[in-house]
Specification:
This protein is an alpha+beta fold. The chain has six domains: 92 residues, no CATH class; 180 residues, no CATH class; 272 residues, no CATH class; 201 residues, no CATH class; 109 residues, no CATH class; 176 residues, no CATH class. Helices cover 51% and strands 15% of the residues. The chain has 40 helices and 26 strands. A hairpin with a 5-residue loop joins strand 4 and strand 5. Helix 31 packs across helix 35 and helix 35 packs across helix 37. It starts with 13 loop residues before the first helix and ends with a helix.
Length: 1187
C-alpha cells in the first residue's frame, strides 16, 4: 500500500502539518532508498565483488573465498588476489602479505542494501487496489501462499529415506502427474482460445499455439522422449518444481488481486528476495560435512574437511579416553596475536607471555557425549597452550642446520615449508600444521614445544608427558558426532563406457539409531540422496583402495532451507511469464483494435505501450494517456497513409517473400546434403559416419576425430599432405613454382618432369636438386602440396601410416618461449608436427619437471603460462600417441604361453583405460559392448594361435603347455639365439679370436659364462656343443625327447612363476590365491611323500595356466571360440580391420566397399548401447555445410 495515497490529512492544524511533514520526509527517504540509481550502483558493486572473488580462487580455496568475500560484512581484498599467477607470472614472486588490504562491501552488506532498495521501491511505486473484494481476497491468498510455502519447506525437512525422503508420492506417480499437468494445461489453453470472448484475434492465435506446443511436448514425452521417466533424479527435480510451482501460482493470484496487472512484477521481485534470503539461510545455518567409510566400517561422526582442530587426548585411570579439541579459528587468532608480539622465545625453560596463549581453564572442552569410550566427567588440562605458528598449507621436509629444530617429536627432524593455499580450481585440501608451547599454568614456564602436522593424526600423534601423564597431540579435520552410527555394507561405481566419468555411485548403508527403534538400511546414490533427521546424505565419491577394498564418501549437509532455491526460481519464472503476458496482451489488444493504415496503427506496430505501463488503482486497469506519446513517432500524411495501406495490404509482397524464403531454404538444404564420393576417391565422409564409443556415449568417429583435433590444433580440420596421385595432377604447378624460386637451371626442372613419389619424396628430390634445406623448400612449395583435410583422415593416418601422421601439423604452440626452446619459428597458424617437436622436446624437460613438482605439491595456482602450455603440449602429444596405439594392429610374437600371459595382463590393465572403442561386440554389458581396435585385434590373434594348436578350453591349454609347448619353445629358441649369435662376433663379446675360430658355437660358449638363468644356459650349452656345419634344426633333431621336455619345462615354470608373482601382488586376486594355496599345500604334501619334486612343479604350472586361460574366458568368453557373440564380434573386427588395411594400401575401391559393407553389417545387427539413428544424424550434422 502506497504511503502517499493513504496518509491522513489534517489541514489547518499544527498537528496535521507536523504529520504531513513527517510523512513527506519518510516518503522522500523511501524514494531515495528505492532509487533505480542505487540499484544500478549495487549491481555494479556486486559484479566487481564477484569478479575479484573469482580471481581470488586462483590463490585460495573456494570456501576461504566464500567466507572472506561473500559471507561477511566487509571484504578485505588482498592485493595479490587481483593478480592471478596464471595471468601475471611475476606476481607469484611478490610477498603480498606485507601489502595493505583494501576494504570493500562484503556480500552480506550488498545483499542487505539490495533488500532495502527493493522494499523501498515497492512501498513507493506499487499501489494496492482499493476494491474491497480484491483487498480482502488478495492478502488472504498471499497468506495461503506463504503458509503453503512454509509447509512445503517444513515437510521436506521432516521426510526421511531415499525415495520417500525426496517424494511425497512415488516417482512413477510424479511422472503421471507431470503428464497430467501438461495435458490439462494444453487443453485448457486451447479451449481458452475459443471460449474467452474478450481476447482478440492475435491473442487467440498465441494462446492456441502455446496450447498446441504443450500438447506436442506431452505427446513427445508419452512416446518415451528424453527417457526421463527412467531417471529417478529427474523425477525428484520434477516433484520439487511441481511443489514450487503450486506455491508460486498461489502467490501470483494473491499479488494480482492486490496489485492488478503489476502483480507479476511484484511476484518477480519476491522471487529475487527469496533467492537472496536462501543464501542468507545457507550462510548462517547451513553446515556441510563429509562421511568417509570403508566397506564393513562403522562411524558415528562426520568431518568438516574445510577446517581442522587440535586434539589433545589422554587416558584416565579407568581406561576411558578423555578428548579435548581446539578449533582452527581459535588457533589462527592466537597465532596472529603471537606473530604481532615477538618478545618471547619458544623452548624449554622460557617464559610465555599472554600473546597467543589459550587458557585451557577458560575454554569449555567438555567431552562430546556421543564419543564412544570417553569419560563423561568434564575436567580441564593441567597446562595451557601457546600457539607459536599456524601454517594453513605446507609440506614437511627434513631439518637443516639453519632450522631451529625442536628437541622432541616431529619438529626434531622435520620442518614445515609454507605453501600457498590450495586454489579453488582443484579438489585437494590444505595440509595444515601448528607449532605450540605447553605452558605451566602457575609459573608460565614453557614445559615443552611441539610441531603438530595434519598427517600426524592417530598412530602418528605426538606424545607429551606432563606430571607423569601421557597426552597425545594431533591435528584432524573438525568432527561433529551424531547420536547414531552408520555402517557401510557395500559401495559400487559405474563409469560411462570408455571414460573415467562416473555414471553412478551407489552405497548401501545401515543406520543404527536407538531413538529410531533399531537399524535401518538405505541406498543413497548419485542424484538420489538420503534425507535423515533434517540432514541430507549425498553420494559424493568412490575410492578403490590398494588392498582391494572400496570406500565411499558421503557429503552430509544440514540445510533446512534447501527448498528455497526451487521455490525462488519458480516464483521468478512465474512472475516473469505473468508480466510478459500482461505486456504482450496489451500490445496485441491495441493492434487488434486499431485500424490498419493509421498513424496509431503504426505506433502500435512499433512497440508496446509507448506511454509505459499503466498505473493501477481504482481505475488501474485502464491505460493512461501520455500527451507526449504522439510526439514520439510522427504521424503519416494522408497520401503516405493510403500508400502504406495499399502496399501492406497487397498479396504480392507476401507471395514474393514466400518465394524467396523457399528458394533460400532449398539452397540451404541442397548444400546440407552430403555429396556422394566419386568411385575412385576414398569416401572419408562415409568412414566418418562409422559409430564408436567414447566418453560414455556412441558417436560417429568423425565427432571423436574432430574433438581430438580441436584439443591439439584448436581447429577441426588440418592441412594434410597430398597423395602421390594428387601431386602428379599438380605436376605443372609444382614444376613452375620450383623453376621460379628454387631451380638453378632448366636441367633441374627437367628432372622433375617424370618424377613420381609422395610428399616426402618430392621434398627430398627438390632439396637434392636445388641444394636447399628442407625448411627452405617447404616454405616455397608446401602450399601447393597440401590441402585442407577432415579430422577423420588424420585418424586413419594415425592408425595405418604413423610416419605420415607424424608430419601432419596438428600441434598448436603459441608460446614464444616454447618455440624458442624447440628451435622453431613462428609460422601462419602456429601449428607444428610431431616430427618437428618430438626430437627437440628434451629441451623442455626442465620446465616440465618444474611444473610436475608444483602439481605434486598442489600448487597449480603458481604455474606460469609457459609451464601450463608445456604441460598441455606434452599432454596432446601423449594423447596422439595413445590414439596411434589404440587404432593400430598388434603383432603377438612368442609362444602361446607368452601371448596368453600378455593378453591376461592387458585385460587386467585395460579396465582403467578410457580410449575410444571402435569394434562392437554385441555384448549386453555396457563396458564390454565395444572394444578398442588393438584389444579386439589381440583377442582375435590369440584365438587364431589357440585354434592352430587345437586349444579351446583351459584344460586343453594346460595339456598343451605340459606336453607340446616345451619342445616348441626349445626348437624356437635354438633358432632364435643362433640367429642372434650369427649377427654378433667374438670381439663384440669382449674376446679376440681369429676369423676361422669366430664361429657361432664359440660365441655361445663365451656367452655361456655370463648367463645365470638355467633355461638359457641349457639352450646356449646346446649351441656351444654343436658340431661343425650343424644347424639349429639338426641340433634339435638329435636331442632326446626327455631332455627337450625337461629343458622346455624350465622356461614354462619360470614364466608361470612370474605370473604367480603378479597374482600375489594383485589385491583383487587375493581370494583366488588363498584357494590356490590351499590346493598347493595338499599337492606339496603328496609330492614330498612321493619324493617327486618335478611332479609338484608340473602341478603348479598346470594350476596357474588353467587360471590364466580361464580368466580370459571369464572376461571375453562370449566373444571367442563358440561364444554367444563370437561370430558377430569376429565379423565386426574383420570389417574394421579391412577398412584400415585398404586405407594403408591406398585402394580406394576396396576402402569404399569395406566401409559400405561394415555400415550395412552394423545396421543389420542389434547392438546394445548403440543408437544408429542418433549416430547417423550427428554424422550428417558434422558433414553438412549449408553455408
Amino acid at each position: 500500500m502506497s504511503i502517499a495515497s493513504h496518509t491522513p490529512k489534517f489541514s489547518g492544524t499544527s498537528a496535521g502539518q507536523s504529520a504531513d511533514s513527517i510523512d513527506a520526509m519518510v516518503l522522500r527517504v523511501l524514494h531515495a532508498l528505492g532509487s533505480l540509481k542505487i540499484t544500478c550502483v549495487l549491481i555494479v558493486v556486486s559484479m566487481v565483488l564477484v569478479f575479484v572473488g573469482s580471481l581470488a580462487q586462483a590463490r585460495k580455496d573456494v570456501w576461504q573465498v566464500v567466507d572472506e568475500y561473500f559471507r561477511c560484512g566487509v571484504a578485505w581484498i588482498d592485493v595479490g588476489d587481483l593478480f592471478p599467477p596464471s595471468m601475471f607470472p611475476e606476481a607469484a614472486k611478490v610477498d603480498w602479505k606485507e601489502t595493505t588490504r583494501i576494504p570493500y562491501p562484503g556480500g552480506w552488506t550488498i545483499g542487505v542494501l539490495m533488500l532495502i532498495n527493493l522494499t523501498s521501491a515497492h512501498l513507493t511505486r506499487f499501489s494496492i487496489t482499493r476494491d474491497r473484494g480484491r483487498l480482502f481476497g488478495g492478502p488472504a491468498l498471499a497468506v495461503v501462499g506463504v503458509l503453503l510455502t512454509a509447509f512445503v519447506i517444513q515437510v521436506g525437512n521432516q521426510q526421511q529415506g531415499v525415495e520417500f525422503g525426496n517424494f511425497a508420492v512415488s516417482a512413477d506417480l510424479t511422472w503421471y502427474l507431470t503428464l497430467g499437468v501438461l495435458a490439462v494445461s494444453g487443453l485448457a489453453l486451447g479451449a481458452s482460445a475459443f471460449l474467452v470472448s474478450s481476447w482478440g484475434r492475435l491473442q487467440r492465435r498465441i494462446v492456441l499455439g502455446a496450447g498446441v506446443g504443450i500438447l506436442l511436448i506431452f505427446a513427445f514425452l508419452v512416446n518415451g522422449g528424453l527417457g526421463a521417466r527412467d531417471e529417478v533424479a529427474a523425477m525428484r527435480i520434477l516433484w520439487q518444481l511441481m511443489k514450487a510451482t503450486a506455491c508460486s501460482i498461489t502467490l501470483l493470484l494473491g499479488c494480482h488481486l492486490m496489485f492488478g496487472k503489476r502483480g507479476g512484477v511484484v511476484l518477480l521481485h519476491v522471487g529475487v528476495a527469496t533467492l537472496m534470503i536462501s543464501e542468507v539461510v545457507v550462510g548462517m545455518y547451513g553446515k556441510e560435512y563429509m562421511l568417509s567409510l570403508v566397506e564393513g566400517e562403522t562411524g558415528n561422526f562426520v568431518q568438516d574437511v574445510r577446517s581442522v582442530e587440535l586434539v589433545i587426548s589422554t587416558e584416565d585411570a579407568d581406561g576411558r579416553m578423555r578428548v579435548f579439541t581446539i578449533p582452527e579459528d581459535r588457533l589462527i587468532a592466537e597465532a596472529a596475536e603471537y606473530e604481532a608480539v615477538r618478545d618471547k622465545t619458544s623452548g624449554d625453560g622460557a617464559k610465555a607471555g599472554d600473546a597467543g596463549l589459550i587458557s585451557m581453564a577458560d575454554v569449555e572442552l567438555k567431552p562430546d557425549r556421543f564419543t564412544e569410550g570417553q569419560s563423561e566427567t568434564p575436567q580441564s588440562l593441567p597446562f595451557d597452550i601457546s600457539v607459536v605458528n599456524f601454517v594453513r598449507n605446507g609440506r614437511l621436509r627434513g631439518v637443516t642446520p639453519d632450522d631451529k629444530a625442536l628437541k622432541e617429536g616431529l619438529g626434531s627432524f622435520a620442518a614445515v615449508v609454507p605453501l600457498d593455499p590450495v586454489s579453488g580450481m582443484t579438489d585437494q585440501q590444505d595440509q595444515r600444521s601448528v607449532q605450540i608451547d605447553l605452558v605451566d599454568r602457575e609459573t608460565r614456564k614453557i614445559i615443552d614445544s611441539r610441531l603438530i602436522a595434519q598427517l600426524s593424526e592417530g598412530d602418528f600423534a605426538d606424545k607429551v608427558t606432563v606430571d607423569g601423564k601421557d597426552y597425545l597431540l594431533s591435528l584432524r579435520f573438525l568432527r561433529s558426532y551424531r547420536p547414531y552410527s552408520v555402517t557401510l555394507l557395500d559401495v559400487s561405481r559405474t563409469n560411462y563406457v570408455g571414460s573415467t566419468m562416473p555414471r553412478d555411485y551407489h552405497s548401501r548403508i545401515r543406520i543404527n539409531d536407538p531413538a529410531a527403534g533399531g537399524p535401518q538400511e538405505f541406498s543413497p546414490r548419485m542424484n538420489s540422496p538420503l534425507r535423515y533427521k533434517g540432514e541430507t546424505f549425498y553420494q559424493s565419491s568412490y575410492i578403490p583402495l590398494p588392498n582391494g577394498k572400496e570406500a565411499t564418501v558421503l557429503s552430509v549437509v544440514d540445510n533446512r532451507g534447501w527448498m528455497l532455491p526451487y521455490i525462488g526460481c519458480m516464483i521468478v519464472a512465474v512472475g516473469m511469464c505473468s508480466q510478459f503476458w500482461q505486456t504482450l496482451s496489451r500490445f496485441l489488444k491495441r493492434v487488434d483494435e486499431t485500424p490498419p493504415g493509421t498513424a496509431e496503427w503504426n505506433d502500435a506496430d512499433a512497440g508496446s505501450d509507448a506511454a509505459g505501463p499503466p498505473q493501477t488503482g481504482d481505475a488501474g486497469d485502464a491505460p493512461q494517456t501520455d500527451p507526449l506519446a504522439a510526439l514520439r513517432r510522427p504521424a503519416m500524411r494522408a497520401g503516405q497513409v493510403a500508400e502504406h495501406s495499399t502496399s501492406s495490404g497487397g498479396s504480392g509482397s507476401y507471395l514474393l517473400t514466400t518465394v524467396f524464403v523457399l528458394m533460400f531454404a532449398a539452397m540451404m538444404i541442397g548444400r546440407a546434403i552430403p555429396r556422394k564420393a566419386e568411385p575412385d576417391v576414398m569416401d572419408i565422409r562415409a568412414f566418418g559416419a562409422i559409430p564408436v564409443l567414447s566418453n560414455g556415449r556412441s558417436m560417429p568417429i568423425d565427432t571423436f576425430a574432430q574433438t581430438q583435433l580441436l584439443l591439439a590444433a584448436g581447429k577441426s580440420t588440418f592441412e594434410g599432405e597430398l597423395e602421390a596421385a594428387d601431386l602428379d595432377q599438380n605436376r605443372e604447378k609444382l614444376i613452375a613454382q620450383f623453376d621460379r624460386y628454387l631451380a638453378k637451371d632448366d636441367k633441374q626442372t627437367a628432372e622433375l618432369q617424370k618424377f613420381q613419389g609422395d610428399y616426402s619424396a618430392w621434398i627430398a628430390e627438390m632439396c637434392r636438386l636445388s641444394g636447399k634445406s628442407t625448411s627452405d623448400v617447404e616454405a616455397v612449395m608446401r602450399s601447393l602440396m597440401v590441402a585442407k583435410m577432415p579430422a577423420t583422415r588424420w585418424i586413419l593416418d594415425l592408425a595405418t601410416r604413423p610416419d605420415v601422421a607424424d608430419r601432419h601439423r596438428v600441434l598448436r604452440i603459441t608460446n614464444d618461449q616454447i618455440l624458442a626452446a624447440l628451435g622453431l619459428e613462428q609460422r601462419a597458424g602456429l601449428t607444428y608436427s610431431l616430427a618437428e617437436v618430438e626430437p627437440q622436446s628434451s629441451a623442455l624437460s626442465r620446465i616440465r619437471e618444474s611444473a610436475a613438482e608444483k602439481q605434486a605439491n598442489d600448487q597449480e595456482n603458481s604455474l606460469t603460462q609457459t609451464e601450463r602450455r608445456t604441460g598441455a603440449m606434452f599432454s596432446s602429444m601423449m594423447q596422439i600417441r595413445t590414439m596411434e596405439t589404440v587404432f593400430g594392429s598388434v603383432e603377438l610374437d612368442g609362444d602361446l604361453l607368452e601371448v596368453t600371459e600378455r593378453i591376461w595382463s592387458h585385460q587386467n590393465e585395460s579396465r582403467s583405460r578410457t580410449a575410444v572403442r571402435a569394434v562392437f561386440t554385441g555384448a549386453e554389458e555396457e563396458e564390454r559392448s565395444a572394444l578398442m581396435a588393438i584389444e579386439a585385434d589381440s583377442l582375435m590373434t590369440w584365438q587364431a594361435q589357440c585354434e592352430a594348436v587345437g586349444v579351446r578350453t583351459p584344460e586343453q591349454f594346460a595339456d598343451y603347455c605340459e606336453k607340446e609347448l616345451p619342445a616348441t619353445v626349445v626348437k624356437s629358441d635354438l633358432a632364435g639365439f643362433w640367429k642372434v649369435l650369427e649377427e654378433m662376433s667374438a670381439d663384440s663379446l669382449g674376446i679376440a679370436a681369429a676369423p676361422e675360430e669366430d664361429t657361432v658355437p664359440r660365441r655361445a660358449a663365451i656367452a655361456l659364462g655370463r648367463i645365470d638363468d638355467p633355461y638359457f644356459r641349457g639352450v646356449f650349452a646346446l649351441i656351444a656343443g654343436a658340431g661343425e656345419g650343424e644347424t639349429p634344426t639338426a641340433i634339435y633333431e638329435r636331442l632326446d625327447a626327455d631332455i627337450v621336455q625337461k629343458l622346455g619345462q624350465r622356461k614354462i615354470s619360470s614364466a608361470v612363476a612370474e605370473f604367480m608373482q603378479k597374482l600375489v601382488s594383485s589385491e583383487k586376486h587375493s581370494t583366488k590365491m588363498d584357494e590356490i594355496r590351499t590346493r598347493l599345500r595338499s599337492m606339496m604334501q603328496a609330492a614330498e611323500a612321493a619324493g617327486n619334486e618335478d611332479a609338484l612343479m608340473t602341478a603348479m604350472s598346470r594350476e596357474f595356466t588353467i587360471l590364466m586361460f580361464q580368466e580370459i574366458l571369464d572376461s571375453h568368453g562370449d566373444l571367442l571360440f563358440d561364444g554367444k557373440h563370437a561370430e558377430q564380434f569376429a565379423t565386426n573386427h574383420a570389417s574394421f580391420k579391412r577398412i584400415l588395411t585398404a586405407w594403408k594400401d591406398g585402394d580406394a575401391n576396396e576402402f569404399n566397399q569395406a566401409v559400405a559393407d561394415y555400415q550395412t553389417s552394423l545396421n543389420s545387427q542389434t547392438l546394445p548401447h548403440l543408437d544408429p539413428g542418433k549416430v547417423r544424424l550427428e554424422a550428417w550434422f558434422n558433414q553438412a555445410e549449408p553455408l
